Amino acid sequence: MGVWDELIEGIAAHWPTWLVTVTMVVAAVIDGRQLKVPNWLTFSMIISGLVYSSSVYGWTGLGASLCGAAVGLLLLLPAYAIGGMGAGDVKLLGGAGSWMYVCLESAGVPVGTATAMFHAFAVSAIVGAVLAIGMVIARRAVGKHWRQLRHIVREILTVGNPSRLAELAKERKPRMLLLPYGIPLAIGTIGYFAWMGMLL
């Protein structure tokens, strides 16, 4: 069997992981161009994950899919609540979570859905931090953005009210260097899949 045949066979065997991978790449491209992940993509991902998980794995699959979606949403909800994250990014990770159980099962990876989501999120957070630092250095604006970061941290520690923090973030947004977070979410999630041997 040639390399190409092995690749096709691997993709066919792990098609749920590849479905999520392709969807995350599409979301990252759209987010990179428009600074927004569209609802048609995120809601389709969430709903299809729930439907497929329940149809193939019954109540266990539905419960695991709901758990994955909930964990994905909850991990980014605090950042969204204070205006530091777009709703599309939150829903995108929820969509990945709704498919995570199926991905793990099809690859035979003995890891819990919530644990897998946390690890994918952690990798995404590290990638996001590296990308943000790289963007700041490339624009030669380290001092400016360091002052903005300190100001934001000070607001979080002193204001406390999520609604007021969201208002302040909205006022500050035109002056900020924005990172389309769909990109680190895609890199982190796909990187986790690759690390766990879930792609081939």
Task: Provide an overview of this structure.
- With 200 residues, the chain is an all-alpha fold.
- It has one domain.
- 82% of the residues lie in helices and 0% in strands.
- The protein has eight helices and no strands.
- The protein has helices spanning 3-13, 15-34, 39-81, 87-107, 113-138, 142-158, 162-172, 182-195.
- α2 runs antiparallel to α4 (87-107) and α3 crosses α5.
- The longest helix is centred in the first third of the chain and has 43 residues, at 39-81.
- The chain is globular and about 50 Å long.
- The two termini are 15 Å apart.
**How many β-strands, per DSSP?**
0
Shape: globular
Average pLDDT level: 87
* Helical coverage, percent range: over 70%
Low-confidence stretches: none
Tally of contiguous helical segments: 8
How many structurally independent domains?
A: 1
**Strand-residue fraction?**
under 5%
List SSEs in N-to-C order.
Answer: HHHHHHHH
Biggest sheet character:
none
Features:
0% strand; single chain; mainly alpha; 8 helices; 200 residues
